[in-house]
Design goal:
Elements (H helix, E strand, L loop, with lengths): L4 E3 L19 E3 L9 E6 L15 H20 L4 E7 L15 H4 L10 H9 L5 E6 L16 H6 L6 H4 L4 E3 L5 E3 L4 H17 L4 E4 L14 H7 L5 H20 L7 E4 L7 E2 L13 E2 L12 H4 L4 H7 L4 E2 L11 E2 L5 E2 L4 H15 L2 E6 L16 H9 L5 E6 L11 H13 L8
Helix pairs in contact: 1-3, 6-8
Length: 444
């Protein structure tokens, strides 16, 4: 790209933003050059009603209110010249679409399994036609409960008994385990679970004209699992290391979803939005620590203590790209460009920076020939929040992306941050976004 470049000025501290652990300035183009084709998207999060209101009841008035809200979502997406929405249709082993496999979601009415009076996702899909907006159906594969069962005074069996009869976990309690926070999870090591999740993906892709099936960062949970039988399961499967066993289980699910989507008469893409640090560059570890799973000679430049998708969530996204099981990746690069604070003694502290991670994924996209869209933390833009109170933070991230040849778009988390009005800085940041994205373009 023919353009002049300039260093990014730090917002809170003096000087320029550097790449992690170096004195090299992070440079951005002086002039943003709007593309004729790129993916510009937003996640529409339904879990915990983040982006969707709960219906008061199933009356005609409540149905019409939700329909009008969904039409407003489409209008807001068009207002910002976005062309992609990633709609969470399966938040907690339930759904916001008409399904033979999953019960209606409690985020709609407050009651799992209660028919809301219409098909919300089907309505959304019907009304987005002709708008130059592609829809990706977003599922959570394993989550079957969000509450701490023990704190609620229940046993696992009692919690399962309260689920809708259509819920896979209720029909197959032997396929469930608990996390260490006592939340119900479908067992990733169970073939029946993999069949069910992949069949759910196939059902969605057959029923609706979605561009893609999408999974975010929740594979094995952040809080880990509490499965007393896991050692035995791993041994019987032929693994000496639990971590290899877990990655193998997730690999099997991803491959099975890919295979089932490939049976369709049309192309339906499959994308993953992982925690953005896949593994950390082994040279950043002490020599005696380089045998850790999170250390890798091809890893990204960030602090060696950072969580990694590979070792912490057991998702080998790089392998899935290599094998061709997925079509695109949206790394959740939810850090700001500087991401530096001062400790009590005035020393700078930084674990990871936006540019290092974006550049790493661009390089991996070049190697694997897969599409990369960067996930941006719009939700973090707030007044009085350090570097995130900079109205130019998001715009500068988009400018930086233009310096990377293999970044093909951006996705923002999450929808309601385009619609809330509780932050002057966010309002200003959205104005800056509109200055960059002035025209309606097709996605990639």
């Amino acid at each position: 790209m023919n353009n002049e470049f300039k260093p990014v000025k730090r917002f809170v501290l003096p000087g320029n933003v550097k790449y992690y652990g170096t004195d090299e300035d992070v440079l951005i183009p002086v002039n943003y050059q709007e593309k004729d084709k790129e993916t510009r998207g937003v996640w529409f999060s339904t879990v915990a009603n983040i982006d969707i209101p709960k219906m008061a009841d199933t009356s005609d008035e409540s149905i019409n209110n939700l329909k009008q809200y969904l039409l407003g979502v489409i209008d807001k997406i068009k207002e910002y010249n976005l062309n992609t929405v990633i709609f969470q249709v399966r938040p907690v082993n339930d759904c916001l679409y008409e399904s033979d496999l999953n019960p209606w979601s409690s985020v709609l009415t407050g009651v799992e399994g209660l028919y809301p009076g219409f098909d919300p996702f089907g309505f959304f899909m019907e009304n987005i036609k002709g708008k130059n907006i592609n829809v990706h159906a977003w599922i959570n594969p394993y989550r079957a409960g969000r509450i701490d069962i023990i704190k609620e005074g229940m046993t696992k069996e009692e919690f399962i008994s309260k689920l809708d009869d259509k819920n896979f976990a209720k029909r197959n309690p032997e396929c469930t385990i608990l996390t260490k926070q006592n939340k119900l999870l479908l067992d990733p090591s169970n073939q029946k679970v993999r069949d069910f999740v992949s069949d759910t993906c196939l059902e969605i892709a057959r029923k609706y004209d979605v561009k893609a099936i999408h999974i975010d960062d929740y594979f094995y949970p952040y809080e880990d699992i509490a499965d007393e039988e896991e050692d035995e399961k791993s041994r019987l499967a032929g693994f000496s290391k639990i971590s290899d066993f877990r990655r193998h289980n997730v690999d099997l699910l991803i491959k099975e979803i890919r295979d089932k989507l490939d049976t369709l008469p049309r192309k339906v893409e499959f994308g993953i939005s992982p925690f953005a640090i896949h593994r950390t560059n082994s040279l950043l570890f002490k020599e005696e620590e380089r045998d850790q799973e999170m250390a890798w000679d091809k890893g990204s430049n960030n602090a060696p203590g950072c969580l990694s998708c590979y070792a912490g969530l057991y998702a080998d996204v790089y392998k899935w790209m290599q094998e061709g099981w997925i079509d695109y990746v949206v790394p959740q690069d939810y850090w700001d460009l500087d991401n530096t604070t001062l400790d009590d003694e005035g020393n700078e502290k930084c674990l990871v920076r936006y540019a290092d991670i974006a550049k790493w994924w661009s390089d991996i996209a070049k190697e694997t020939n897969k599409k990369i869209y960067i996930g941006h933390a719009l939700y973090r833009v707030k007044d009085d929040s350090g570097n995130w109170s900079n109205k130019d933070e998001i715009a500068n991230q988009l400018r930086y992306n233009q310096s990377l040849d293999y970044i093909h778009g951006s996705i923002f988390f999450t929808y309601h941050d385009f619609a809330r009005s509780d932050s002057k800085v966010l309002d200003e940041a959205l104005i800056e976004l509109k200055k960059l994205w002035t025209k309606d373009v097709s996605d990639i």
